Amino acid sequence: MRRRTLPHYPVILPLSREDQELLGRKQMEAQRRRAREALVQSCVASGLPCGPFDKDARNVPRPFSGNYWSISHKPRYVAAVVSSTPIGIDLEEITPRNKSLFGRVAEEWEWQLAGDRGWETFFRYWTAKEAVLKATGVGLSHLKYARIQRILDADRLIVQYGDRLWPIQQYRFQNHIVSLTNGEEIRWTLSDR
Prior knowledge:
By secondary structure, the chain is an alpha+beta fold. It has one domain: CATH 3.90.470.20. The chain is 30% helix and 28% strand. It has 5 helices and 9 strands; from the N terminus they run βααβββαααβββββ. The chain has helices at residues 17-21, 24-46, 101-105, 108-114, 119-136, and strands spanning 11-14, 68-73, 77-83, 89-93, 146-153, 156-161, 164-173, 176-181, 189-190. The strands form 2 sheets. The chain has a 5-stranded antiparallel β-sheet. The protein has a 4-stranded mixed β-sheet with strand order 2-3-1-9, covered by helices on one side. It is globular, with a radius of gyration of 16 Å. The termini are far apart. 37% of the residues are buried.
């Protein structure tokens, strides 16, 4: 009998204009602080205890009270989620980059699944694969081992990493995309403050 998973409550928060204007280490500290606020909101919505949100020597989030957590931060937004099962979340702004990255993110047969090589697809693939790598606790050096297996629809796809298939749910807002692993029932929170 398959165990029913609880709903996931990923939280997306904007950074203040002041925090967006910070540079270097101060900007990263502001992003981390805001991501912790999003984690607390996810815990409260999920009915799970809040932390501690510690990381190990490899910078991988340590489970707390049998719960897992994941964060992602960019200059304008942060995303966070807490779950009773291993989970990964990744957030990216959809902006053109160096086209040589297409070959690093996916194989030709993976691009053929989508039928295009646009930046929307690029970031769809990138965030999906990075979310899986976060859920498994490995770094981006394993990106070439994560493969898009199926595109189910505009918001869902399947990534294979090792011998496991990972369902991915995606959410788009204000030229950003967020990918979340293991989501059967997801209740996204996008706050404007």
